[in-house]
Amino acid sequence: MLNTYYEEEIYGFLYREYGDLGEPSTLLVSLPDVGLVGSIAGAHIVRELGMKDVVGIDSYSAFPPVAVIQGGEPKHPLRIYSDGRISVLLTDIPIPPPVVIPLARSIVEWSMRRGIRTIIGVTGLGNPARLELEKPSIYYLATSKRAEEQLTGIDGIKKMGDGILVGPMAIILKESARLRLNMLMLMADSYIDIPDPEAAARIVEALSKILDIRVGVEKLMKEAELIKLRYKELMKETRNMMAKMGKGYEYRAPLLYT
């Protein structure tokens, strides 16, 4: 059973700390989105680094009545894993549209209260021509010069130009900018509604350099087909949620009025 060390409510979400969070400087946010790129990349990093979940996030009014069972123990639907230096936010459920804004705001607020210096958001960027790409490209957005400086000396990551973002990452990006919290957002070319472990592998390679961690992608690539099957249902559920929150806006250029 989980023994709570500390808990607090932020924007209607209960954050329960039941393990040693340490003093992480970075929070990696990996939520279900296009191609489940963030979910796959985050889970791979947690597994390879042997991280333990130390914080649970829940809301009986906002989330479905879900209890995740791992190793015979109940877990929260959203969990934060940590090795003391880096923390990773993962979830086993798609985020319902009405929950997106308050949850995203609570994540940013919690990060600031815990002294997190940088949030790194990872997701897929739906590309209709993904099948034709030999290697997915990676794009970034940053809310500050300090966040952008983490890419110094790392080749092959392009700054995103014009576009529209929809979903939790869009709110986390805006809230981080508003509150002057460093945020770096990484996006890889991805299939829109198929789990894309290859795109996730590209993100992991970039994060290994940015965070100075040793996480290989050989196992991820070797298990690519198994991962696609394992994440099939979550992708289906996430696709339905994305449609409800207007995800289709991402696939057209913004209008510029002059």
Fold and architecture overview:
Mean pLDDT is about 90; it is low at about 250-258. The chain has one domain (about 25-50, about 80-250): 3-Layer(aba) Sandwich (Rossmann fold), CATH 3.40.50.10900. It has helices at about 35-50, 100-115, 145-150, 170-180, 195-210, 220, 225-230, 230-245; strands at about 5-10, 15, 25-30, 50-60, 70, 75, 80, 85-90, 120-125, 140, 155-160, 180-190. It has a ten-stranded mixed β-sheet, sandwiched between helices. It has eight helices and twelve strands. It is of the alpha/beta class and about 260 residues long. Helix 2 (about 100-115) crosses helix 4 (about 170-180). The protein is about 30% helix and about 25% strand. Helix 3 (about 145-150) links the parallel strand 10 (about 140) and strand 11 (about 155-160).
Name the descriptors.
258 residues; alpha/beta; Rossmann fold; ten-stranded mixed β-sheet; 8 helices
- The ordered string of helix (H) and strand (E) elements is EEEHEEEEEHEEHEHEHHHH
Q: What spatial form do the alpha-carbon principal axes imply?
A: globular
The overall number of domains is 1
Find the count of extended strands (DSSP E, 2+ residues).
12
Brief write-up:
The chain has 258 residues and is of the alpha/beta class. The protein has helices at 37-49, 100-113, 145-148, 168-178, 197-210, 218-222, 224-230, 232-244, and strands at 6-10, 13-17, 26-29, 52-58, 68-70, 73-75, 78-82, 86-91, 118-126, 138-142, 157-159, 182-190.
Write the topology of this structure:
Layout: E1 6-10, E2 13-17, E3 26-29, H1 37-49, E4 52-58, E5 68-70, E6 73-75, E7 78-82, E8 86-91, H2 100-113, E9 118-126, E10 138-142, H3 145-148, E11 157-159, H4 168-178, E12 182-190, H5 197-210, H6 218-222, H7 224-230, H8 232-244
Parallel strand pairs: 3-8, 3-9, 9-12, 10-11
Antiparallel strand pairs: 1-2, 2-4, 4-7, 5-6, 7-8, 10-12
Helix pairs in contact: 1-5, 2-4
